[in-house]
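Q: What would this chain look like folded?
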Amino acid sequence: MALIETSIEINSPSEEVWEIVSDVDNEPKFWKGTKEIRNISKEGNVVVREIIIAFRDQKCMQKVTLHPKEKIVAVFTKGIIDGFKELKLIPKESKTVLEVKWDVKLTGLMSMFTGMIKNHIKNGTDLALQSIKEEVEK
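A: My prediction, written as structure tokens:
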């Protein structure tokens, strides 16, 4: 598994950060590794969706659970990626620390390339966090 953890401090309260990150349909705007999203179902705080990722335009299924103003957990349930991505909001005075944790691996024959994509995911995540920070702080 590729374990990736990174974070950014945003100069806004967690409610404002939540407004941006909880709009999971808007994910491709910030996460360049996610090219397209198609929601299959939505029940309460759980969204089942199909995403197309930038890696060879592969389709993956995800179950996304929103824990209001606390965290978002996206579990990959089918496709080339196995594992999860978690975004966590940590209030810090008038600021917010946005943490992201990935615990993923490539499936099937592609599993041998999991280590090679780790840096790619980390760099993409850092870019996404910077974009989210800029959007919230403007």
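Residues 2-137 form a domain with the Alpha-D-Glucose-1,6-Bisphosphate; Chain A, domain 4 fold (CATH 3.30.530.20).
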